[in-house]
Amino acid sequence: MQKTVKAPVKFRGVGLHTGKPATVVVHPASAEYGIWFRRVDVRGVDQMIPALWNYVPDARLCTKIENEDGVCVSTIEHMMAALVGCGVQNALIEIDGPEVPILDGSSAPFVEGILDRGLQNLDAPVRAYRVLKTIEVSHNGATARLVPAASMEMKFDIQFEDAAIGEQSKSLTMANGTFVRELCDSRTFCRKSEVDMMHAAGLALGGTYENAVVVDGEAILSPGGFRHADEPVRHKMLDALGDLALAGAPLIARYEGNRAGHALTNKLLRALFADPSALRMEVCDAQDAACLPGVGVKQADLRQVA
Predict the structure, then answer these.
(1) Has this prediction a pTM greater than 0.85?
(2) Which is nearest to 26 in space by CA: 69, 71, 80, 104?
(3) Among the options 17, 78, 235, 262, which is catalytic?
């Protein structure tokens, strides 16, 4: 069955790039509604923006969606990952600013709030896109591809000059609860040199060593260091799951990313939907549904974070 939240869930914090405070409320929605954002702070224009791949005008530093009236919401990827990771297909997300709060830099606060409120079954089957052939995109040595698979799987590889990160690789089958247990608490990360450049350009104004892991060569500058030895690659997988959620339905496929980021994953979705022979919408049977992220997830999974 499709799911939504049982009751509204509120989050408040500052945006990573704008530094501006915002309140976000995730509201229940009916079956087949999908995920929509509503900018409650704007007037006289269309406030509604669907969380879909073809509404992404910019995905360089984060993922932003924008409607035809120019109303936008940015840095949606951590919240989108939390929704798909909890099995939520339908929700109205109201926000009073241009950027989703960064909170602790991961999806864990969103997951905790959603699971604390509980999930509501809806009288409609879960639908998913089955990928039928390999789709691949690349840019500047980075690649992202979707490969036919029996369930939702992910593999990610990263390579950084900073010894604190170096080369990392991770593969996961995203069966129920995997996202919550293994990925949701992994925070965004960056190099100190990148932080300095972003600050000089008036970006990352809400970033701190508490909501991002900052590295400089061998040193981890954020208090407490990494939550996982491979936290950076885990966070890249978290981001990718959130960006893939903009397909509008779960994907039954294997996602493989090598140094990929938000822009490349969006380019991958555009390539996928440009080829009608590459995918098929299916009603999930019990076996397929059991392999989707979030199906059957429970609050105990959050306490078992790996």
Answers:
(1) yes
(2) 80
(3) 262
